[in-house]
Amino acid sequence: MVTIETSSILPIKNIRLLRMLARLLPLRHRLYPLVSHYKSYPGLLAISFGKYQLLYPAAWLSPLRSHIIFRDVEHYSEFALFKSILSKLTDEAIIDVGANFGEWVLMTRACTELPIVAYEPSPVSAAIMQRTVEYNGLKDIDVRNKACGNSTSDIVLDTGIVSYINHSEQDLLHEAKQASEATLALTNQITNSRVPISIPQVRLDDDLEGIKKIGLLKIDCEGYEYEILQGAQKIIETQRPYIYLEIHPGQIEAYGHTPLDVIDLLRPYYNMEFFADNGSTNDEQEVLAAIKRATPSDHVAGWPIRFQVDVICRPK
Fold it and tell me: Which residues contact 100 (CB under 8 A, 6 or more apart)?
């Protein structure tokens, strides 16, 4: 069985030329035929990503996912917001919750040598991130294959290219516990289909107890942000780290909360700046109105919508 840990790595050839073509011909997913031959490779692709190499399963390539090859760090416009906070830190730890397969970890390490703790619940994505850290020879990055929330009970994770905490099928927990280590296999069945597996859930207040100074908490968890913040209440109250948060209005309702619940939870401790529709505002009513406009009238709670709100939280 080919696993993340044992798979071979193939660098993308002529990536500068590919990216130049993407800039000159902004055809987006229609450029996929230029790289589609990589999809049959039975391992990981090494993709130039700023100062480092980002590892990515060839099996994940598709027209809509080919942007991972055609765009470099500068195209992650939201990272400019995050970077503005990094410059204020001196000797604190950085916590990345929902680190996926390591894009933000690499971008962060390019800006600072401060210690990073990266949480990712998907075993596949966490293994890719760990391999990426080792491949680039990076130090002081602690990859933790755990879900973060407001309890320590196991949860069901629907794994895939993007994974979600299962919000409706908790009866799957027993079945999910039977999921084998085949979830780490690089096969189309695993990487392109949703597979429910059991994952340990931790509270950040407990799991980070040994870290004395936390300077920045980044959360991008597809609607599970309220639960994660609840599990970090002690850290928020006593340490007041900066928080960079992505609120996903379409998914958050599936867990019984709203964007306003998140804002209300943070309001006593932070001044918040919101970035929605590519604009910045400190008026939460404007943000809530923008969310309402972006939500279709027939929207079903839990389904993504083409809209998210980035929030920078500065301690009061």
Answer: 120, 122, 125, 129, 162, 220
